[in-house]
Amino acid sequence: MWESLKVTDAEFAESSRTLGMNQAFLDVFGDGAVIFREGPVDARKLYEQVSPSERQRSSLESRANYIDFSRAGDLGLTSGPYRYTAGFGEESRRVYGHFVTIWRKIDGDWRMVADMVVRVPGVLSLDVEPDIAETDQLLAETASSENAEQNTVESLMEADERFIASINFRGGRRAIVRYGVEHLRIFVPGMAPGIGNESGAAVYGAFMDEQMALSPLTYEPAGAFMAVSGDAGYTYGTMSVEANSFTTNYLRYWHFTKSGEWKIAAEVLSPF
Fold first, then answer.
1. 34 vs 15, 115, 154, 262, CA distance in Å?
2. DSSP run (H or E) holding 28
3. In 3D, which of 109, 115, 116, 113 has the Cα closest to residue 30?
4. DSSP 3-state of 260
5. Hey, what domains does the chain have and what are their CATH numbers?
6. CB-side exposure of 182: number of CA atoms within 13 Å?
7. What are phi and psi of 79, to 5 degrees?
8. Angle formed by the axes of helices 197-212 and 172-179, to 10°?
9. DSSP assignment of 100-126
């Protein structure tokens, strides 16, 4: 599964270079795929509305440096740096950031079902490679299929709700410490990814706790999916702080751990 996801991500990156970003996305979207603007939107419908002239004015380059997958091999994640260029020549504008893409195996092929990016200042190198040893570290925390087979999508959504309640009670940093796996990955705008529970909690806390300013966080769940093996899943939606009009998309990737509970393996936030 790891190798097939690596190949899929590389093929998508190459298609984006040769066919253009717009067509590359349209070729890999699965049914019901979402991307995030002011909330999650229908990915295929949005990209089909892009005019031919607009398609020629931008390019996307990306490279995965991390890969994860479910034991059933029907759900996976890739993440890494990207470089987006709009315009041509001296008028071109280039931005860098990190992408997090969720894939599902549909009719034997990996299909993109959710994708979110965060921008960061400065320049990021695309000369990166994923390391299967990092994936193995997370799988070592993950429950066996036998111990996860009782899980349901409802249990995953309940974990989402408990995490939000924990943010309101403990703050973002402490909530991640409690509900994040040891080998966590956190992506927020303007910061380097938080890799590992301690670093991820610090990044999440620095971003979310400042936004909340002692005001309660509310959320609107928009979707959830669980792997057949019950050991991995993802949730997405929006979170808001009414006191300061802060609203952000969230995409949250979970593993069911050996401790017998859902914990966050990766989260990415995109405010709007």
1. 20, 7, 20, 23
2. helix 21-28
3. 113
4. coil
5. 2-132 (3.10.450.50), 145-271 (3.10.450.50)
6. 12
7. -150, 160
8. 150
9. EEEEEEETTEEEEEEEEEEEESS----
Structure tokens at 20: 């253009």
Both structure tokens of 105: 């195996």
* DSSP for 120-153, written as a single string: ESS---------HHHHHHHHHHBPPHHHHTT--H
Q: CA-to-CA distance for 177 and 172, rounded, in angstroms? A: 9
Lowest-confidence pick of 47-56, 145-154, 219-228, 233-242:
47-56
pLDDT at position 91 is 63
Q: Which amino acid is at 29?
A: F
- Tens-place pLDDT, residues 135-186: 999 999 999 989 999 999 999 999 999 999 999 999 999 999 999 999 999 9
